[in-house]
Design goal:
By secondary structure, this protein is α+β, with helices and mostly antiparallel strands. Helix content is about 15%, strand content about 35%. The chain has 5 helices and 20 strands. It comes from Faecalicatena contorta.
Length: about 325
């Protein structure tokens, strides 16, 4: 399970972020991938070369490097979210002219090759997504993706039995299954929910008064199922204030996703493992800055696409280390 949102400041700066909810043991690291970096498709071992430098959170396991989210030097940002029961992939085909990618390689591909939504739409025409087991879940993990260019234009990318589609995402929110169109239609069920306090009323001769503030939000879903998180996040995002600057945006972004952050143990899977929020991350698309905290440490840490010794002539992958950091309580 995961939730993702976009955010814009009064200065028209764009941010994209997500809660990474997962029930498998992973050790995510921050990586910087340079321009002209060559990697092999896990589907057919075809060599792929990155066009743009990017920074992302991912994991390297059994010789495969896959990413969960990231932002590139053009300000294009994207994240992969679980899409259980809806994703439908292709089979490997030797005679195709398309670029065959395992689904877990798709995010790495678009971060390294796309700068705009138009690029994404072109990539979807050129790529065939292959169902291949990843080294973490040992299954062909069902995924869909949220992506946004630096201008703030946002889309959702889904590969289902209906085909490989790109949907404009004006609400700037994504959760898990069902498909994105279903979630947008479902928002129509919550037209009564408002940020405005309810007025006193009468039922016949009986006077009724709201017992406290926030009466207008009665009916807003409070659970952690994907439709509930989508609605709650969309409501919060669209009713909060617009942050004036970058620092305010970072704080607000993390605050918005707190309402759908899942503590460990609250949601249990059929494998008797907890599905919980491992980390929350936001990317400043203008600057290539990354902000992240984890379930073990709520301190927000920052990294940048310009960290390390990476430059346009250096084709070496840079591992900035694990996002899990020791807890430190700072004195007041």
């Amino acid at each position: 399970m995961c939730t993702s949102i976009t955010m814009k400041t009064l200065q028209n700066k764009s941010f994209l972020g997500r809660n990474m909810d997962f029930s498998h043991d992973i050790d995510p690291h921050l990586f910087i991938v340079p321009r002209q970096y060559i990697w092999k498709s896990a589907a057919d071992m075809r060599k792929i070369t990155t066009r743009y430098k990017f920074i992302g959170i991912g994991q390297q396991l059994e010789g495969l490097l896959s990413f969960f989210d990231g932002v590139n030097e053009t300000g294009f940002a994207a994240a992969a979210l679980y899409f259980s029961g809806c994703a439908k992939y292709d089979s490997l085909y030797q005679g195709t002219q398309k670029i065959q990618l395992a689904a877990f390689d798709f995010l790495k591909y678009i971060l390294g090759r796309c700068s705009t939504v138009s690029d994404v739409k072109q990539a979807v025409k050129e790529v065939s997504l292959i169902g291949k087991a990843d080294p973490v879940t040992k299954t062909s993990a069902p995924l869909h993706w949220i992506a946004a260019e630096k201008s703030g234009r946002c889309v959702v990318i889904e590969k289902t039995e209906k085909g490989f589609n790109v949907f404009e995402n004006q609400i700037g929110v994504l959760a898990n299954a069902p498909d994105f169109s279903w979630h947008m239609t479902n928002l129509n069920n919550y037209t009564n929910v408002t940020s405005i306090q309810c007025e006193n009323t009468h039922w016949g001769e009986v006077k009724l008064s709201a017992p406290s503030q926030a009466g207008g939000t009665l009916g807003l879903p409070g659970g952690f199922a994907s439709p509930e998180r989508f609605v709650r996040t969309a409501f919060i995002k669209k009713h909060t204030y617009t942050p004036p600057d970058d620092n305010s945006a970072v704080g607000l972004c993390f605050q918005c996703l707190k309402s759908v952050s899942i503590p460990k143990g609250v949601i249990m899977t059929g494998r008797d493992t907890s599905d919980f929020t491992l980390y929350t991350a936001f990317m400043n698309q203008e600057k290539g800055d990354y902000f992240v905290n984890t379930h073990t440490n709520q301190q927000i840490y920052k990294a940048s696409i310009n960290d390390g010794k990476s430059n346009q002539w250096n084709q070496k992958l840079i591992d900035l280390g694990s996002i899990f950091r020791p807890v430190e309580f700072l004195p007041i």
